[in-house]
Amino acid sequence: MSASRAERPRLLLVEDDSQLGPLMAKVLDEVYEVTLTPDGGEALDLARDRSWDVMIVDRRLPTVDGLTIVETLRGNGYSVPMLILTALGAVQDKVRGLDAGANDYLVKPFEFDELFARLRAIRRVGGGEGPFVRIGEWEFYPDSRAVYSPYDGRIILTDRESSLLQLFAANPQRTFSRADILRAVFSATDTPGTVDTYVHYLRKKTEAGIVQTVHGRGYRLGSV
Q1: What is the DSSP letter of 178?
Q2: Which positions make up the DNA-binding region (predicted)?
Q3: N or C: which end of the chain has fewer CB within 10 A?
Q4: Going edge to edge, which strands form the sheet with 146-149?
């Protein structure tokens, strides 16, 4: 499953390796809207001029190195989550990167599964999502209406979608009739068909199994 083009978070990738950079951009493009630059000076300009959801910064770069990029941006109050990527794996190198203001530090060579997981983690912390509810492999943050998928990263729900999922998540063993859901989530003017419509929307945005149909009775939280 890949994130829809309209919902993909924006990622600035700062990597000067002519083979690794394009490869990373291609793989990350499954989830993120990626902009790749090999130049540290250009990275600073891009960070200041555009809005980003997360950054990956190589440690060793031409013109301006990765540590300087992170230190400069943090010194100017820049709060976007940043991950430093480098071949320098000594403890003192990691300490310098984190002290410079990076949210995380990943040593080359790396596995893309780990990179994706670390990006999800720093975006959760950096984004101030609030407390979460775990639903199988998914994480649901009611305060920000965000769901973190093991495949797509961050997905934003509408108010009604979020309220519906929150109802199920707060009562994981209970089956709700359409009338129950109408009273808890929707208004008196809505119809039972509205419940079916929003269950469909929620499944389409997340995963079909996140809401289970109990035939003849209604819906309940699924196991995903």
Answers
A1: H
A2: 130-223
A3: N
A4: 133-135, 138-141, 146-149, 153-156
- Alpha-carbon span 192 to 197, nearest angstrom: 9
Tokens of 199: 């269950």
Whole-angstrom CA distances from 112 to 24, 27, 107 are: 8, 8, 12
* H or E element in which residue 21 lies: helix 20-28
Q: What is the DSSP letter of 62?
A: S
Place of tokens 């994130």: 3
Identity at 197, one-letter amino acid code: T
The two structure tokens encoding residue 157: 């729900």
Rounded to 5°, the CA angle 119-44-54 comes to 15
Are 202 and 161 a contacting pair, CB within 8 Å? yes
Q: Please provide the DSSP assignment of 86-131 as one string.
A: ES--SHHHHHHHHHHT-SEEEESS--HHHHHHHHHHHHHHHHT---
Structure tokens at 92: 């003192």
Q: Which domains does the chain have, with CATH numbers?
A: 10-127 (3.40.50.2300), 133-221 (1.10.10.10)
CB–CB of 57/41 below 8 Å?
no
pLDDT at 1: 43
Question: In angstroms, rounded to a whole number, what is the distance separating the alpha carbons of residues 149 and 156?
Answer: 11
Residue 193, token pair as written in the block: 């068909």
Q: What is the pLDDT of residues 162-220, one digit of tens each?
A: 999 999 999 999 999 999 999 999 987 899 999 999 999 999 988 888 999 999 999 99
Where the chain has pLDDT below 70, the residues are 1-7, 126-130, 150-153, 224
